[in-house]
Amino acid sequence: xxxxxxxxxxxxxxxxxxxxxxxxxxxxxxxxxxxxxxxxxxxxxxxxxxxxxxxxxxxxxxxxxxxxxxxxxxxxxxxxxxxxxxxxxxxxxxxxxxxxxxxxxxxxxxxxxxxxxxxxxxxxxxxxxxxxxxxxxxxxxxxxxxxxxxxxxxxxxxxxxxxxxxxxxxxxxxxxxxxxxxxxxxxxxxxxxxxxxxxxxxxxxxxxxxxxxxxxxxxxxxxxxxxxxxxxxxxxxxxxxxxxxxxxxxxxxxxxxxxxxxxxxxxxxxxxxxxxxxxxxxxxxxxxxxxxxxxxxxxxxxxxxxxxxxxxxxxxxxxxxxxxxxxxxxxxxxxxxxxxxxxxxxxxxxxxxxxxxxxxxxxxxxxxxxxxxxxxxxxxxxxxxx
Length: 386
Fold this sequence. Notes:
This protein is of the alpha/beta class. The chain contains 14 helices and twelve strands.
């Protein structure tokens, strides 16, 4: 018996492997504080949970959820984009509901990439951009994100022959893992680049409502003409503390939406209807509670930054996202340093190399842990000798 080559050549998802090691340590009685995975620890508001329960009690809401999302959910997504970004979308042609944005990102390669074709992926970057490309038989072309360039890709450094052959350029701002943000002026250059080389821009934007210090994150679709060349992915996971509910969206270019939706009709049967009902409500409800939630994340960010500074580790002050991106001490690889933190003081962080070769030399720390546990982790870090 032999598995497919596409699987045999595919590395295991890093957080699944890390989770196995954490379970081993926990079974030994170790207290592990997980600052590695970007999963919000806070629940969604009570009114969202109550809406889910009400809908789940309705016998008519337990059939298939529909391939494209309910019309009500798609209209709520459109209304969110108009309210939040001033972007008008057609709910019937420019919106696809996703079972979380991760599956949409992976399926996007199946919809748009043929074997052997290059896909431009950021390095460091969310691993699914690369893994989805590999599953489709595409060839990841890694575009470096460097600190000296504000972790924005140097589009002019991409060879013209690679850009002409590429099908997709992946972007992600506010950025995972670096916490970097991008101005609309950069997105304007990206739209010009896409037109020049006839490729699709896929912008992953799940952290746009998780912001601090007065920063307001834009949508790439705010750039005039972006809908002609771009698809934006968004999610309720981070914005509304609904990571396990699995609700996301892909919006923008109608051809890309149709191709992704057609791919999905052959793979899944849609989102559970009560979850769609609750998602429709939260997208349409008063958003003011997000301010208080973001203040909790800001406090956690500042706890981490203060501890890193105290022990001499350099980190930028992110104004958005769920992560702090920190340089490691000299003399270590990122995997070695992360392993020491885990094995010796019970703090689990993500090695920067997880996100690509240009992530080497860094670790990523998540804000998705209870504030008191982050305080405990930072107390351990202050006492750690490295």
